[in-house]
Amino acid sequence: MVKVLITVLVVLVSVAAFCGEDAAANYINRFFAQDFRAMYEMQDSTMRSVMGVNALAGTYATVKQQFGEAEELLTSSMMPSGDYEIHIFTFRMTGGIFDFIVTIDKQEKVAGFQIRQSSYGMQIPNYADESVFVDQEITVGMEPYYLRGFLTVPTDKESFPLVILVQGSGSHDADVTIGPNKIFRDIAWGLASRGIGVLRYEKRTYRYGAQIVEEGVIPVAEVEYIDDLVVIVEQARTIPGVSDIILAGHSLGGSVVPWVAEEMEAEGIILLAASPKRLAELSLDQNIDLAAEYGVSQEMLAQVIELFNMILDHALPEGMVVDPQFGITTDYYYSFDRYLAMPVLKNTDLPVLIVNPELDFQVPISHFNIFEEYLCDKDNVSLVLLSRLNHLFMPVDSLMKTTEQYLVPGIVDISLIETLSEWVKSNF
Questions:
Q1: What is the rounded average pLDDT of the residues 185-190?
Q2: How many Å apart are CA 202 and CA 9, to the nearest integer?
């Protein structure tokens, strides 16, 4: 019998961390309101020992003197890191653009606070030619969950194929802003510079996370992905100039894209750093692989293995909480079993492109090898492994089993842009 229900914090299986986000945002709000006593009370014991009320007041005075007043919140993002969440709030200040970084622990206490000059707006891909496309904000989705999106289209084409980008797990904006990086913006701008339209949009859990929790909505695949994507594909058909629709899913998004593509009669499928495995199986693999990195004892790991094996067998009751921190229940895992990618990929006649990065610790090469084993004989399937790239398709020197690598400023590697562009142009 499973006695402890716990999973290692892994980006791929995390749902929107609503409470942590609220704590981090509240801490920043108290900073600009100069409510240093409230900030102090929100900190853990270690932070209290080094950042007392006077130290916080001094930090504020220094920020005001050197950076000026806060004018606008430009973007925010969150990334799990071990037992913590790292929240980055990027502000336009009178004296420039700066990142305010708040680290939140499992008890929703502030475990770190730092400020740095931001790379926001600085990392423009050198393969993007802004003179040949327009990037316009649009609204997509359905009531009551309308979503902010961006339609990026070439200006010199009367018709063009349209790639709809679908994010991985977690709470993501339309750009997939992770630290200083904007993964989907890079892809959109790179493809539009090559005559291919792109539609990207924020996830429902990003825009309406707190509302979903308050309404008691159970996190499942339909809420996180399916319902919105089905509607958006329908809406994309009405965009002037669109000749074909291709669904491109990154990471966990890749697991649902094949089913939706078939259901909605899209013209093509792209999987980016995706896995052929069931979500619970992938989560189990990640927990085993990362146990030593996160200091998980053998006893606890055995309980985790037992837990996921029971989920894989659908032996646990529906609605059972398996990750209290993120509110994940068995329903979440069971729901993704309704949209398995491999059965669709084995039978579809649609053009399929599967691209995986070589140095991806979340979806390692062994998963790409499964795609190769079962799909290599299909003429409609192209399989590409890109060397020396991580899960975000950014260059790295070696395999690093930590999400901290995603906080290094950079751009999506041009090899991915060229791979996508060449495949789209050869098929549509």
A1: 97
A2: 23
Domain count, the chain: 2
Residue closest to 186 by CA, chosen among 204, 172, 200: 200
Average predicted confidence (pLDDT) for the chain: 89
Q: Give yes or no for residue 275 having a pLDDT over 70.
A: yes
Long-range Cβ contact pairs of 248-251 (< 8 A, separation 24 or more): 248/163, 248/164, 248/165, 248/166, 248/272, 248/420, 249/166, 249/274, 250/165, 250/166, 250/167, 250/168, 250/176, 250/183, 250/184, 250/274, 251/11, 251/12, 251/167, 251/168, 251/169, 251/362, 251/363, 251/391
CATH number assigned to the domain comprising residue 265 = 3.40.50.1820
Task: Please answer whether residues 198 and 152 qualify as being in contact, where contact means their C-beta atoms are separated by less than 8 angstroms.
Answer: yes
Q: What percent of the chain stands above pLDDT 90?
A: 65
- Whether residue 375 sits in one domain with residue 264: yes
Question: Same domain, yes or no, for 186 and 61?
Answer: no
Q: Residue range 174-197: average pLDDT? A: 93
In this structure, the answer to whether residues 68 and 161 fall within a common structural domain is no
Q: What is the pTM of this model?
A: 0.78
Ranges of beta strands (E only) in 30-121 are 70-81, 84-93, 96-104, 110-117
Residues whose CB falls within 8 Å of the CB of residue 214, separated by 6 or more in sequence, listed in order: none
Domain-terminating residue out of 117, 143, 174: 117
**Could you tell me the residue range of the domain that residue 57 belongs to?**
17-117
Share of the chain above pLDDT 70, in %: 94
For residue 67, the model assigns a pLDDT of 83
